[in-house]
Amino acid sequence: SPASGLSESLVYPNPFRPALGHTGINFSFLPAETRIRIYTLAGELVRDLLTGAAGSAHWDANNISGQRVASGVYFAVVQGAGDKKILKVTVQR
User: Fold this and answer.
1) Which of 83, 37, 88, 41 shows the shortest CA–CA distance to 63?
2) Mean pLDDT split into 10-residue runs, the chain, 93 residues
3) Side by side, which strands form the sheet with 45-50?
4) How much is the pTM?
5) Are 57 and 50 in contact (CB under 8 A)?
6) d(Cα 16, Cα 51) in Å, to the nearest integer?
7) CB 71 within 8 A of CB 92
8) Is 18 helix (H, G, I), strand (E, B) or coil?
């Protein structure tokens, strides 16, 4: 069931390592219809996601154009239930 706030939010696996068999990055324990915007360190939008009714979302580590993102640190700005939280996500290719 979806969470009522952002305090229990979780992102995993973090770091994301495809060489270890990871297929994507999961965001969970979020309210339903929470918006997740993923940015580079330079502030460029990489991907825009929305959680479903269960309060979770999956990012395949691709950008808006469908290309794999490079290794590095990304910021996920999570907005839902009248609150905002920033999560750090690491990709190691």
Assistant:
1) 37
2) 92 97 97 97 97 96 97 97 96 95
3) 45-50, 35-39, 72-80, 83-91
4) 0.94
5) yes
6) 19
7) yes
8) helix
- Residue 46: exposed, middle, or buried by beta-carbon count in 10 A (0-12, 13-18, 19+)? buried
Determine the Cα–Cα distance for residues 78 and 36; give it in Å rounded to an integer: 5
* Dihedral sign computed on CA atoms, order 74, 79, 84, 85: negative
Longest dimension (CA), the chain: 37
Angle, CA of 23, 39 and 58, to the nearest 5°: 30
pLDDT of residue 1: 76
pLDDT at 92: 97
